[in-house]
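Posting here for the record, re: NAP.
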Amino acid sequence: MSMKIAIITGITGQDGAYLSKFLLEKKYKIVGFVRSNDDYSKLEYLKIKNEIIFEKCDLLNLSEIIKNIQKYNPREIYNFASQSSVSLSIKEPFQTLQFNIISVLNLLEAIRLIGKSIRFFQASSCEMFGKFQNIPTVENDFFKPLNPYAISKVTAHQIVSNYRKLYGIFSCCAILFNHESYLRGEDFFVKKIVKQAVEIKFGKRDFLKVGNLDIKRDLGYAPRYIEAMWLMLQQSKAEDFVISSGKSICLKDIVYYVFDKLGLKREKIIVDKDFFRKSDIPETLGDNSKAKKVLGWDYEMDFYKVLDFLISEEIDNQRLKYFKNKGIDEDFKSI
Ligand code: NAP
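Prediction output follows.
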């Protein structure tokens, strides 16, 4: 059987890196579409950078995309490239909307014009629901986006659905709820809490500043979420799926758990009103039963277990960074 080829956009991000690792283990050939001056540190961290073919490809340029897809003739395309921060989207709405929408339209147009049966995955977001109408929410609930990032994801989501219905292209979206890992961007809540708490433990920081801790989020573990994304492209029919943990957790419980685990005093947590968002959604919670039933995705991880992984990986890496040439402090062996 010939080798399966997958193109991944946004390969330098968290999900791109974990999906690459997963597909390499399944013996895929991986082509990463990148822009210039990329930071390959996540792929280097997973020790897979040398196994990937990189191709510079501007996702706002249709003819460049067509040329590069034809060059590799992939079975699957996973589209992760996106301006993925809500707060940055509020500061830069034009770039966010332009890139997050036109890139998806271009990729699908390229697939349509090439005319081959390429399977397309789009990373949609639970941000599309805005203030959740139903808890837990399902695939066909109403979208009421509250920021430019969410608007861009709703539009992209509808383009994907449109290409499926109009042209019969195998294109589908995962409505992704937040999923975390050591490789998550440092501005995102869970990564920030774990990283800064470990820095306090190592004496590199005095306090942790946080915003509204009274909200609840459906949070999961990224290396397991990418399995569901792959499964979506192995089905006989293209469909959208909510990919979530199916449980929500209060942010206060996350911070207290991390602090208790590291033996840190709670007085070091400072709630700062400047960190509050104008339109904070009180709770996100996704119903993942369709993904479990149709894809056979067996996600059951408790988020405290995920936090244990994240704390331990963060400690190991910070220890390497700060204490390379010193002995390991006894204090940290027991954590
Ligand atoms: P991430 O770590 O922020 O990675 C984003 C990727 O997009 C990076 O490779 C980045 O490349 C690329 N990118 C950004 N702007 C670009 C541009 N203008 N041109 C080309 N590439 C660009 O995101 P992630 O956490 O892996 O998430 C993957 C996808 O899932 C994203 O579409 C995100 O919106 C969506 N999603 C994620 C979550 C989550 O919890 N992680 C939840 C819902 C939806 P550079 O390295 O060059 O910056």
